[in-house]
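Researcher: Let's continue the batch. This sequence belongs to Glyoxylase, beta-lactamase superfamily II, and it's 211 residues. Same format as the previous ones, please.
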Amino acid sequence: MKVTCLTFNPFQENTYLLHDDTNECVVIDPGCYEKAEREQLKKFIADNNLKVVRLLNTHCHIDHVLGNKFVADTYNVGLEIHEKDEQVLRAVPTYASNYGFPQYDEALPTAYLSEGDAVKFGNTTLDVLFTPGHAPGHVVFYNGPEKVCIGGDVLFRTSIGRTDLPGGDFDTLIRSIKEKMFALPDDVTVYPGHGPETTIGYEKKHNPFLQ
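Model: Same format as before. Here are the structure tokens for Glyoxylase, beta-lactamase superfamily II:
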């Protein structure tokens, strides 16, 4: 499985494309808003002859969902989120203009993800872990054989997701990290929603929020 990160929008949000040797691809948290960003995403998919088969959100804050409608319409895929984040998603149109995204176009979910689900594409399987705290319906996607976790805004390199947004809760987030993320092997690479990747082992040793 290959992990490609494209960073979009003023929030510098990491959009991930996961694909394997079958060329089937999933898009996670498309943050592409401007036309040039969307063209960059399209070009990567076309240049690598990928077939987009699933559209996933770790959570539904505005910076992670700006490209949902574009991806859903362009590649004829439905949006998959955790049901507890649907209220977060439905709130986005009420504040998108205030954040400088007046052309935000909404896509609503066609399926829900739950803890323990297996997201399959090509020859690859991602396990869904429920990790609330930053958002009420936050999930991460874990591939054990590849030791990869697409972590959204739960755990960053020496930091954690903010908990001051509606539906956020600090104690819940810390519990999610310690019980779900830190249960993964130390050599698992975490690809976060912002900033550089890290590993579980590194964060256990160096993350000041988790000592």
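Researcher: Any comment?
Model: Residues 2-210 form a domain with the Metallo-beta-lactamase; Chain A fold (CATH 3.60.15.10).
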